[in-house]
Each structure stands twice: as C-alpha cells, then as structure tokens.
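Hello,

I think I submitted the nicotinamide-adenine-dinucleotide job twice by accident. Can you confirm which output corresponds to this input? Input:
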Amino acid sequence: MAPSDVATTPVDLVSPTWEYAPAPQAIDVVDIASSYGLFIDGDWVDTIDGSETATLNPATEEELAHYTVAGPADVDRAVSAARTAFNSWSRLTPSTRGGYLYRIARIIQERAREFAVLESLDNGKPIKESRDVDVPTAAAHFFYHAGWADKLDWAGLGPDPRPLGVAAQVIPWNFPLLMLAWKVAPALACGNTVVLKPAETTPLTALLFADVCRQADLPPGVVNIVTGAGDTGAALVAHPDVDKVAFTGSTGVGKAIARQVAGSDKRVTLELGGKAANIVFDDAAMDQAVDGIVNGIFFNQGHVCCAGSRLLVQENVHDEVVDRLTDRLSTLRLGDPLDKNTDIGAVNSAAQLDRITQLSATGEAEGARRWELECAIPTNGFWFRPTVFTEVEPSHTIAREEIFGPVLSVLTFRTPDEAVAKANNTPYGLSAGVWTEKGSRILEMAARLRAGVVWANTFNRFDPTSPFGGYKESGYGREGGRHGLSAYLKPAA
Ligand code: NAD
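Support: Only one job matched these inputs. Its output is below.
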C-alpha cells in the first residue's frame, strides 16, 4: 500500500473490528452411503434380527445416513467370525501382524482429510480439531502398536506372552475414530481379534475404518464392526465366547458391565468418566495457564473424559485469572464445525445438550455465578455457549458431577494441602493439571493427586506411548504405552 493510500484509507485504528472471512472445509472428499450394513468377516452384511436407524449432523440436525442396529444374532455372527479369525491371526508371525498395522496407519494418514471431515460431520467437533488431533493421533496409535507387534517378548510381561482371544470393544461418541484406534491397535498388535461397537450417534468413521481394513487386506474376521446402541453393546459384552471386554464410556454403564461380567473369566478394562481438577498456583506463567485452562475444558466442546472441568485457583490470583480467562474466551468463535476458524463446534446430541443445560441451571440455582460467551447461536443444531461458573462451593452439583460439556466450575484454595484435598474430593480420578513454575511442587502434587494422568504446565496432551486410565470410579486398566499391552496379553501357560 502506498503512503498516500494509508492517509486516505478509512481504518479505525483505535478499536478496529476484525472479522474472519468464512473458511469452509470442502466436504466433497467424503462419500457417505445412504445406508450401511454390518461389517462382519471382511464383508458388508445385512442384519439377521436387527433394525435400522439414522445418524444426524448435530450442527444442522440433518440426517447423514441410515445404519444398522445389530441384534443378538448379528452379534453372535460377528463374535463367531472373530473366533474363527483368531485361530490364524494369532499364529501369524508377529512381524506380519505388525505389517498390517503399519499399512492401516499409513492408509489413515493418506485418507486423513476424509476421516477428519466425516468425523466433524457426524460428531460436530471443529474441523481443526479432527484434522490436527483426532486423526493424526489415531494414526499414531496404529504406528506405535505396529512397532510393538514383534517385540512383545520384551514388554516386561514375561517370556512369550499370549493373546487373550476375542475382544469385545465398546466406545463412546466424543472421539469416535481415536477411541477406536486406542482399542483396535493394541488388541491386534497382541494377536487378538475384535468386535467393535461404536456409539449410536457417531458410527460413520468406524464404518469408514471397515473400508480401511479391506484396503489393507486385513484377513476377514480380524476386525468386525457392529453398530447399534446400548442393547447391542450389552449383547456383545455378555457374549459367552468373548474373552476380553474393553469399554470406554460413562461410569454408570461401566458399573453395569462390571456387574454383568462378574463371575465370568472375561478380562475387563473400564475407561470411565472424570471430573478433573486443573490447579493454578500464584507463581504460574499466567498467559500459558489461561490458554491451558481454555484447552482443558473447551477443547472438543468439553466432551472430554479427562477435561479440566474444576478449576482450582490460588485465592490471591483468582480475580486476575478469571478476568484473563473471560477476556480470552471472548475471542472464541462458535459455529460451523466445518469452518477452519471455528473453535467451538456443536454439542453431539439433543440428549447431551439437555444434560448440559440442566446441570448449568442447577449451578445457578445452587448459588454459583454464571458467565457465558456472548455470541450468536445457529438456528438449527445443538449448541451451548462456553460457560464459566465462579463462586462454586465443593458441595455444588456442578463441582461434583461430570457435565461433559463446555462448562467450567471455578473454586479457590490457599495452600497446596487444601488444593490436594479439594482436587481429590471426588469419586473420579482420571486426570489433573498443575500450573506452577516450581519443579519440586509439580513432583509433590503429582505424587499426591489421585489421578491416572497428571499434566504439568500443559493439559490434554495425548501420546500413544503414555498409559492412560483412571483411579476410583474412573475405571481400571490402562490404554497406551507398555502398560496398555498387558490388557491384551496373558503370560505363557
Ligand atoms: P455411555 O456409557 O452412555 O455409552 C458408551 C458406549 O456404551 C456407547 O457405545 C453405548 O452405546 C454403549 N452402551 C450403553 N449402554 C450399554 C450397556 N448396557 N452395555 C454395553 N454397552 C453399552 O457414554 P457416552 O455418553 O457415549 O460417553 C460419555 C462418557 O464416556 C463420559 O462419561 C466420559 O467421561 C466417558 N469417556 C471416558 C473416557 C476414558 O478414557 N476414561 C474416554 C472418553 C469418554
């Protein structure tokens, strides 16, 4: 721009209003079928005793596709295919099994755009998250476990550890492809075969994964995918020919599954709910901490089991942290998940939106002070504004129950002892965060917090090499890392 232009251009330099132009992600990379069957024994098959339902785009409420609700006979057929495949899959040379996993990982990378768009359409999460987090991390899980396939003898689980058999895997809707990868990759690397049931509101990326299995020439029956809701999951978990149950979902359903399989010889891993404390000390790097708080609870609309949903702030910096936090939140953009500038997408379902709305109303009714982002809400779809509650007491419902939405409860503490006591005052124990510049304090807090993962000066970091799992009502067993392998292996007889 020439200097003379500068003088004549009418720009308000005192309070410029910047607005992003729309940056929509093209969706023609995905090819969604009008209806889907079940993926059993390497093929698409029609249901024997099930029915059909539809999955919606939560940002528009439009139907994306019809899919099958598998009945007990379908589940039986899938388990039997997995059992037959187990005989040969478990006897393959470990490096050959690893080769299949590498192939799957590379195909996910090659088809990353397709997976990311489909995930955002079916789940409502912003495309920048499915593109930069969900899909690359899913591929990383397959790469990581591909490497383990021929090194299991050195995993510290005894010489010549053996696969368990057929794994029944049930996953939730918040990270559909990523949760699939967390489950399928270690099971296959260890020589097991699987029957996976995705969540009823997000079946599409699992069904696309079936296509990846075919593209990778995975032997038929090694991965089987049965869609449906709780009844399908219950039939799968209870099936007598299943050796291992791996469940990720709510604590209520996790307890029901634990009761259901009690007394059987099925091995079980439960990855359940959480109510994590994110603890900010007065010496923390404040800008970094505020960004970490935002990432901790507003990433993926707060639909994150390990979300930092309880912010514990040292009392003398409470006002500063809350001011900076609400300033920062005011820059977030809520809207079309397929827009590359969107920070907050749609809530996954009407039922989840109801739950978030009700719990937030309870927060106000019990005396907490509510702040929410001022922003336009699209006419259709399921949306909830990022919300912060201050003046929250430990006894308040919003300080105790998992909301699983973009809602933060702020509490205060004075001393490290009080922070630990408040952080641990929950039936859950999945994750926690600590923000301080003192290394010694980080180590002390990490040792005293009853949480499976403790992040220091960061939050929501996921890495396939690192075990993830809970204490108390957040479940048992670990996924990821060397520890995660032990959930799919038994010592040689
Ligand atoms: P959910 O428990 O309602 O459903 C999870 C899955 O279980 C779905 O596929 C569902 O169809 C199936 N299911 C429902 N009833 C069943 C039954 N009786 N038997 C077998 N399967 C059944 O949970 P959700 O609402 O889909 O997911 C949100 C929950 O998942 C939150 O509590 C969240 O914290 C938790 N979660 C935990 C982790 C973790 O790693 N700990 C990760 C993601 C989500």
